[in-house]
Amino acid sequence: MMEVKQTYRYPIRLASEMSGVTVFVIRAWEKRHRALAPDRTESNRRLYSDTDIERLILLRQLIELGHSIGALAALSNEALSELLAKDRAGKHVTFSGTSGAPAPRDFQADLLAAARALDVRALEDALMQASVHFPQQALIGDVIVPFLESVGRQWQEGAMRIAHEHMATAAVRTFLGAIVASAPRFPGAPAALVCTPVNQVHELGALLAAATVAMRGWNVVYLGANLPAEEIAASVRQLGARMLILGIAYPADDAALHRELRRLAMLLPADVTVAAGGRSAAAYATSLETMDTVIIRDLDGLGPLLDGRSFRGAISGHSETP
After folding, report:
1. Are strands 191-197 and 219-227 parallel, antiparallel or unpaired?
2. What CATH number is associated with residue 159?
3. Who's near 42: CB < 8 A, 6+ residues apart?
4. How far, in Å, CA of 118 to CA of 97, rounded?
5. pLDDT digits (tens, 9 = 90+) for 96-113
């Protein structure tokens, strides 16, 4: 009797661990490029087969060699295997000026070129490829942040128009929002709420912070921009959040925001750690002091703060003061 090979079914988290492709990227490949078609449970949860895992690994390896997901998505697993063998035999790398794996600067160059061309699809594809090559911390710190800084600098110098800057930031905002939305939930982990307060409509910094929170093992809830104090405090209480992170970018002299921050201090639970970051956060230091706020200079400063407060008091129902 011929033996029938059993086909296993894996949830998306396990498929991610087995293939080395993040959950966010797997979902994007399915939705945008139809590179996979997993089974679904009655509750609409994705289930991946051994063949799907093999396909994810092949796609990741080929993208690491410089191919784009758009060129690979329609190929069969057999064709992907053949292409990978040929590339390895010829040591094919499509990134110019590199030998071996691409560096963050290669992706920064691709992103800047896409921004100058107002080519949002090319920019999104470059972000997607970078997310395959680098862990999330390096993706944010070594690719996305330097790219945004370069765009801002070139706009100030007149090398880019405001339209280029708006397109680039909009694409990055969408990309980061998808990462935060697909962040895993960790049973028993503390929750952190991230948002910007009243009159603060620039949210890229807050989104970067939310992504950093998620990769540190916290359960992150991102509420968006321009929230009044009452809504922020009510959300903190409803979630039982251990930390509140505020993004404060512009303007630096808003009297209404000073009043909102002082009101927020009166409404928040006493055991919540408050952090604030952004180019204008220090300008509101006197009002932020009413909440014993830790002012974060950059994302590198947020990580240690999260690590130091991760699970203290979680078992005892948040009774311990940070």
Report:
1. parallel
2. 1.10.1240.10
3. none
4. 24
5. 434 456 788 889 999 999
